[in-house]
# Entry
Amino acid sequence: MSILCNIDDKFIPLYRIMWVAATPHFCGEEGCVREGSYEIRLEQGESVWANTEERDIIIQQLEQWQGGLGSLDSDDQSW
# Structure
């Protein structure tokens, strides 16, 4: 598994990703070129934009990189 992911033709280190939008961008401004794309926020206020397929791949890569949450037993409440 690589520490890098490919978003919007850029190789981004997974550790730079702060969050991934759950819904596509919609601002209603005429001429907006980001509508329908998912924002992926990086450190220092930077953002890159992904289509649905890229967003799903990024989420999967982040879960694999961090090991995922796994399953919690009813007796074990620690994360």
Observations:
- The CA atoms of residues 19 and 41 lie 5 Å apart.
- The chain has one domain: 4-26+33-66.
- The chain has a mean pLDDT of 87.
- The beta strands are 4-7, 10-13, 17-20, 38-42, 47-50.
